[in-house]
Amino acid sequence: MSRGRFHGRLVVRRSTTHRAALVGILAAAIAFGTTGPADAQTLRGQVLEDGTEAAIAGALVLLISPDGKEQASAVSGGTGAYVIRVPSPGEWSLRVERIGFASSTAGPFRLASGADRSVPLVVSSVPVALPTITVESEKRGICGLNPVDGETVWRLWDEARKALQVSQIVEGQIVFETEVMERFVDPFDTTIGHEYTDFNIAAGRSPFDVPSPEDLQERGFVRDSADGGLAFYGPDATVLLSDTFQESHCFRAVRGNDGLVGLAFEPAQAPLKADIRGTLWLEAATSELVTIDFEYAGLRPRGDLGVGPEASGLVVYDQIENGGWIVRRWRIRIPIDSAEYGGRTYKVYVERSGRVTGTRANERKAGQQQRIPSVYDHGARRDTTSP
Fold this sequence. Notes:
With 387 residues, this protein is mainly beta. It is 10% helix and 42% strand. The strands form four sheets. Strands 1, 11, 12, 13, 16, 17, 18, 19, 20, 21, 22 and 23 form a twelve-stranded antiparallel beta sheet that branches.
């Protein structure tokens, strides 16, 4: 590989046959609430904290049918306001979930056809602490998430799930402005090749597309791409929340550093197609989802390229001003070459990373989506290492 600049005594020794093409990470396209005819029933109101009556932003409000199933959802905005379209007249309840706090339920309410009812929701102000993990669970862990199988695993998942569901809903309501960069790095995070930056805008969904959970299970997280290389996919909220993923992966609680506690996942069986394993990291003090790190399972290790980790990725979550949660940054690294430094051979990676540089309200109606550019589309592209 002769491209790019090299630092110190880093000398590239050999190249692989195909350059890895990095595509698709972290998309969700769930519209706000449930759309319906003009005379649809509506529940609306404000989420308030018990005792202080302070408005709570970023709370997950769920519409519950008489049989206990979730039928629609919304996220309270910056003023605590929420709106849910109810699919049919009848008896309905609301459940409000707040990251790091106990859930609460209101109702049931009987709604006539076309009714528009105001329902204030009061949530607990007492935080619920995550469990302290003194001994990690068995390596295989809990296969299939079930509250009966493991209380610690379930409590960790329940808090991570709230953030993922909020992220799904919020991403359907906002427009993302993103910056995506590609560079070549060594295992020490030193840039050794050209950096290219793309600027994209996506509305009605998150910036990058990911196949459906069923497609990923059938064809794998790594597959041949149209340009003759390889396409690597990472997990998004829709994938992680799906029954398909949860039923095919095992989960266990793991200890972390710097006040973090983790929920690790891995394939329940040796994968026939490329799969992923990784960890959802939460703040122990607040229960907030911080990052998801992952690596690929079922791929041939690239030990022939020298020292360094195999293909991996990282997803960083963040809370925005209206209280919602979004993916703020992401990264995938694929080893494609090798280099010599100090008498040892190290892997060289192609890395595609991105970050959300801005968000604004999506003025389109719920359910409408603007086509998003793929990571191959080059709009305002610049070479950030050129003079």
